[in-house]
Amino acid sequence: MTAIVEEQTVSNWQRFRQSHFWHSFCIDKVAQISFLVFVAYVIAALLAPLMAPFDPYDPGSIDIMNSELPPSWQEEGDATFWLGTDAQGRDLWSTILYGTRVSLMIGICAVMLQAFLGICIGLVAGYVGGKVDSLLMRLADVQLSFSTMMVAIIVLAVFQATFGTQLYQELAMVMLILVIGIAEWPQYARTVRASVLAEKEKEYVDAARVMGLRAPRIMFRHILPNTLSPILVISTVQVANAIISEAALSFLGLGMPVSQPSLGSLISSGFEYIFSGSWWITVIPGLVLIVLVLVMNLLGDWLRDVLNPKLYKG
């Protein structure tokens, strides 16, 4: 039995290595570098407690006398803090590691929520059709008429004004995931609906109906797997968009609190010091955010080209 499982595993791996997907990845240097950089970000975020020399959440490890120390390569820098410190005296390298973890968590969880809502609504709209389709798509059109930032600013500002700043800071991550996730579901719904309209007329769907399978099983077990390619492409780009949205909201004071740093809140907290000479507090987290968003967009472009044969030029 074990030998059979091992043989199947080897066979699957061989098929994957012979696939168009793997071949295109091996010949695309930009995709390889982007993937390696993204994996490095994920590993750094997951291992932040082990890699960070200081815990930015622990007030006992923070000394206000160390505030606004420049990076170690400058004359006034301290070798203990190689990227310098922020206005509170926290080690910038440690806060960036923890901030990257928070930003990635918000981005990935928000996109998972977007995908769940959008896929369910898109499947129902495309498969059922008729008045249900019209109602759901008009709802999506109304949602798309409002920008994500506008909806997020209004909802988060009202919540903060109604329930107080302290409660908002405790629930900041959950609120950001909910607002960003709910505001962007139409992107998935419209894409999935278009794919379902094309798939539901094919013979395998008719065969499933003849066998007496119920509509939910046909939608999720048979049609959905054939619509995953555009969903993967959208998800890659949407994670980057969600991270940017979180950073923008944090910059406006509606994101993560200073006590739980994200990349956006780090940029925001150091912005008022940039003209006084403490440029590293804002610039370094900003560069980290730019590189993260860039590699995710590059991976999204590569996936779009590979999964769409009409666009692939390899």
UniProtKB/TrEMBL annotation:
Q: Which domain of life does the protein's organism represent? A: Bacteria
Xref: InterPro entries:
BP-dependent_transpt_permease (IPR050366), MetI-like (IPR000515), MetI-like_sf (IPR035906), OppC_N (IPR025966)
Q: Which Gene3D superfamilies match?
A: MetI-like
Transmembrane spans: 33-52, 102-130, 142-161, 167-185, 231-258, 278-300
Membrane topology label: Multi-pass membrane protein
Give an example GO biological process: transmembrane transport
A GO CC annotation recorded here is: plasma membrane
Keywords, ordered alphabetically: Cell membrane, Membrane, Transmembrane, Transmembrane helix, Transport
> Member of which family?
Belongs to the binding-protein-dependent transport system permease family.
Q: What is this protein called?
A: ABC transporter permease
Q: Which organism is it from?
A: Amphritea balenae
